[in-house]
Structure formats: structure tokens, C-alpha cells
């Protein structure tokens, strides 16, 4: 699918590196995985489990232990706690934890890491699991951003997806979040769903925009192996939206959102000025992050590693004092350069060339060599004020540009 990003009108706060790269490389964003869901949605292949709610407290205790362990092991060389600019409770459904459990986890993060006073602290939530009382509790605990998996305002489509909430519960959840004091909300929606028409999509966007969330993430449906959707598609029981319809839906959404003041700062993400997700930008700028909990992935100190995926085994490993890491890969400099370029070019800002050079002690031009000449001549890139980004034509050709530009 083509994915145009409009780079005009980006706020300076997003375009400029906010801090020198050497400072940012010393930080680590924190991701805490909560692997519990009421039921499994029909399209989902995340590391989440239904029917394991009795494990919540033992899991939280193990996570508390892992936070302390990783905090200790990731201290700065001079012994100071590792600085963190963002904390993200993801899942799964973190809103299935009690306020007490979420508060303990957050306190543990503050005890084991040097978390910025103005840190972005996000919790993912399922609109069918939220009450006003709970929202007030988590807001008081320090969570200042809520990301809700709304997916659609069409009751029939929500049922097809296997979601547990109704369209009305999305609106109620947003109203309760506002009443609880949240001023930074993200809503996720999906397009390209089976039997979803352009009219469904337009109505969903109308209702979403009426709630004026600060951030919207719009994803096209991907049929993942091992999910009920995969089996149903192969049996011919459901037919996802075709590529052309998906492209039309994306373009419609982009134009509509931009006309309402949202900035498309990454392929699938739009934000009102000042409300881009700092946590997700950590990933797209290839900055360090530490993932805690089952299956969580980390990128830290030139290593990429991930945790045991099974909650029972994870709890046992942590309880016995072991690190629950199961995979660990050294990231060579060349690979880190390629990934930084690839991830940067997916964003509206592109690659900040002086930062790239500072970070890798090599210019981007020297890194890509003759390949840059070819891509440049074809008009696939544009450069302005130290930033290199895909041109409109480059964006339309998407993966082709990455293949031609970056080493294998
Ligand atoms: S609520 Fe989210 S994490 Fe849980 S099964 Fe559904 S899509 Fe997956």
C-alpha cells in the first residue's frame, strides 16, 4: 500500500533534535508488558493470553523484581541510575491490572531508574475495561497518557474483530478519561477490515474526530498466521479489504486528519501539535529502550534481546533470581546504521544528518556511497536544513527505496 507523508507544516519541536544525541543515547525508554486479555481478538498475534487473570499478582511481583534487577544492571558507568524519558505499559490489556498493581509498578520504575520529571507515561487500555474510578486512580498514580484500542465505531465490525467493547463504550471511555484529567489520548483504528466500506470508515473517522483525541494511530489489517482470521481467510469465510480500497482509505484519512489540524508524523500516526508519542519516537529514532515482562524486546548497549514469552516460565525464572532473557544478539555498527536510516526514513522528519554522523562517526553519504547517487537522481529523496527524507515520489515507492539505498 502506498503511504504518503506530508512533511509541510511540521512543528519545530518535532523537526529538531531536542537534545544532543550523546545525551539521548545514554537514556533508555521503558516498556512494561502486561500479557493478559479477557478474550483473544480474532486478528491478534501479540504475546497475550486469555484465562490467566489469576496470574496477575504473581506476574506483577515478578515484574517488580525484574524492574529492580534491570535497573541495577543498566546503571551508568559512574553508578548513577539510568535516565528514562518515557514509560509505556503495553500489552495485552494493562487496564486489567488494579490501580494498586499499576501504582506499585510505576513506583518501582521511579526507584530503579532516573525518570524525567516531565516523562511521558502511557498506558494502553481496552475501552471495555475502564471505569471512571480506575481512571482517576491511574491518573493520580502518575500515568499521563492513555492509548485506547478503539478499532472501529461500527458494532458489526467490532464483533467481527472479536473486540469485547461496543462503540458507545469508546465514547464513554474517552469522556471518563477526560473527567479523570487525561489531556493526552490516543485512539487506534483499523481499516481494510472484512466487509468494511468507505462509508463505514468515514463514519468511524467522523465519530473519532468528534472526540478530539490528541493522537490517532490508523493501521491496515494484517492477516497473521496462527490467528482465527488467518484460518477464515484461507477457508474463504472472510475477505479483507483489497489494496486499492486500503490505499483510498489511507488517503482519505490523511486528508481528513490534516484538515482537522493533525500532523502525519509517521506512516501510521497523526498527532495534534506537541502530542506526538515520545515513546514511539524512541523506536523510530533507533534510541535505546528496555522491555520488561513476558516477550518484551530491548535494544540497549549495542545488543538486541528479548524475554521468555510464557508467563509461567517467566515468573519462575525471575523468582529464581535469573534474568528472563532468551535471545540476545550483538548489533554491529553497520546494522545499527542501516536500521537508523530505515526507521528514520519512515518518519515525516527523516534522518537528521549531523546526528547520524555524530552517532556513527561517518556521514550518511559515505555510508550509502554510490547508492545515494542513484536514489537521488531518481528524485526519491529530498534534503532540507540538515534533514534527509523521502520525497513524495520516494514515499510512493516505499520499500523499493530502502532496497536500493541500504546495504543488505
Ligand atoms: S485486546 Fe489487544 S492485545 Fe488483547 S487480544 Fe485484543 S488486540 Fe490482542
TrEMBL record:
A Gene Ontology BP annotation from the UniProt entry: protoporphyrinogen IX biosynthetic process
Give one GO term, molecular function aspect: 4 iron, 4 sulfur cluster binding
Which note does the record give on the cofactor? Binds 1 [4Fe-4S] cluster. The cluster is coordinated with 3 cysteines and an exchangeable S-adenosyl-L-methionine.
Catalyzes what?
A: coproporphyrinogen III + 2 S-adenosyl-L-methionine = protoporphyrinogen IX + 2 5'-deoxyadenosine + 2 L-methionine + 2 CO2
Query: If you read the UniProt record, what top EC class would you report for this enzyme, in one word?
Result: oxidoreductase
* SMART domains registered for this protein in UniProt: Elp3
GO CC field = cytoplasm
What pathway is it annotated to?
Porphyrin-containing compound metabolism; protoporphyrin-IX biosynthesis; protoporphyrinogen-IX from coproporphyrinogen-III (AdoMet route): step 1/1
Needed cofactors, names only, are: [4Fe-4S] cluster
Task: State the compartments where it is located.
Answer: Cytoplasm
> Pfam families, alphabetically?
HemN_C, Radical_SAM
Occurrences of domain Radical SAM core (ranges): 22-264
Q: What is its EC number?
A: 1.3.98.3
Keywords of the record: 4Fe-4S, Cytoplasm, Iron, Iron-sulfur, Metal-binding, Oxidoreductase, Porphyrin biosynthesis, S-adenosyl-L-methionine
Q: Where is S-adenosyl-L-methionine 2 bound in this sequence?
A: 92-93, 151, 163, 188
Name where it mostly resides: cytoplasm
Assembly description:
Monomer.
The identity of this protein, by name, is Coproporphyrinogen-III oxidase
Amino acid at each position: 500500500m502506498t503511504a504518503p507523508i506530508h512533511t509541510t507544516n511540521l512543528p519545530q519541536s518535532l523537526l529538531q533534535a531536542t537534545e544532543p544525541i550523546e545525551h539521548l543515547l545514554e537514556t533508555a525508554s521503558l516498556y512494561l508488558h502486561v500479557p493478559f486479555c479477557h478474550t483473544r481478538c480474532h486478528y491478534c498475534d501479540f504475546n497475550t493470553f486469555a484465562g490467566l487473570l489469576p496470574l496477575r499478582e504473581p506476574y506483577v511481583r515478578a515484574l517488580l523484581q525484574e524492574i529492580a534487577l534491570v535497573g541495577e544492571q543498566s546503571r551508568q558507568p559512574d553508578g548513577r541510575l539510568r535516565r528514562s524519558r518515557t514509560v509505556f505499559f503495553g500489552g495485552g490489556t494493562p487496564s486489567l491490572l488494579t490501580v494498586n498493581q499499576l501504582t506499585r509498578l510505576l513506583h518501582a520504575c521511579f526507584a530503579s531508574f532516573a525518570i524525567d520529571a516531565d516523562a511521558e507515561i502511557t498506558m494502553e487500555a481496552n475501552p471495555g475495561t475502564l471505569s471512571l474510578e480506575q481512571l482517576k486512580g491511574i491518573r493520580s498514580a502518575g500515568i499521563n497518557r492513555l492509548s485506547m484500542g478503539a478499532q472501529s465505531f461500527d458494532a458489526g465490525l467490532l464483533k467481527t474483530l472479536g473486540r469485547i467493547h461496543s462503540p458507545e463504550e469508546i465514547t464513554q471511555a474517552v469522556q471518563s478519561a477526560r473527567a479523570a484529567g487525561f489531556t493526552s489520548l490516543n485512539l487506534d483504528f483499523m481499516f481494510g477490515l472484512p466487509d468494511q466500506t468507505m462509508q463505514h470508515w468515514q463514519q468511524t473517522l467522523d465519530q473519532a474526530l468528534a472526540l478530539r483525541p490528541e493522537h490517532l494511530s490508523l493501521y491496515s489489517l494484517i492477516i497473521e498466521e496462527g490467528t482465527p482470521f488467518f484460518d477464515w481467510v484461507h477457508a474463504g469465510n472472510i475477505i479483507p479489504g483489497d489494496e486499492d480500497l486500503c490505499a483510498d482509505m489511507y488517503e482519505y484519512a490523511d486528508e481528513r486528519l490534516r484538515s482537522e489540524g493533525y500532523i502525519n508524523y509517521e506512516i501510521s500516526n497523526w498527532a495534534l501539535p506537541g502530542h506526538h508519542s515520545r515513546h514511539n519516537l524512541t523506536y523510530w529514532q533507533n534510541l535505546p529502550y528496555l522491555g520488561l515482562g513476558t516477550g518484551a524486546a530491548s535494544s540497549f548497549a549495542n545488543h538486541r534481546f528479548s524475554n521468555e514469552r510464557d508467563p509461567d516460565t517467566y515468573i519462575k525464572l525471575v523468582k529464581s533470581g535469573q534474568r528472563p532473557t532468551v535471545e540476545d544478539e550483538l548489533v554491529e555498527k553497520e546494522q545499527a546504521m542501516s536500521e537508523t536510516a530505515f526507521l528514520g526514513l519512515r518518519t515525516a522528519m527523516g534522518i537528521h544528518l549531523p546526528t547520524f554522523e555524530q552517532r556513527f562517526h561517518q556521514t550518511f553519504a559515505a555510508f550509502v556511497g554510490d547508492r545515494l547517487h542513484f536514489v537521488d537522481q531518481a528524485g526519491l529523496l529530498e534534503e532540507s536544513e540538515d534533514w534527509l527524507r523521502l520525497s513524495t515520489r520516494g514515499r510512493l515507492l516505499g520499500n523499493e527505496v530502502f532496497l536500493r539505498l541500504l546495504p543488505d
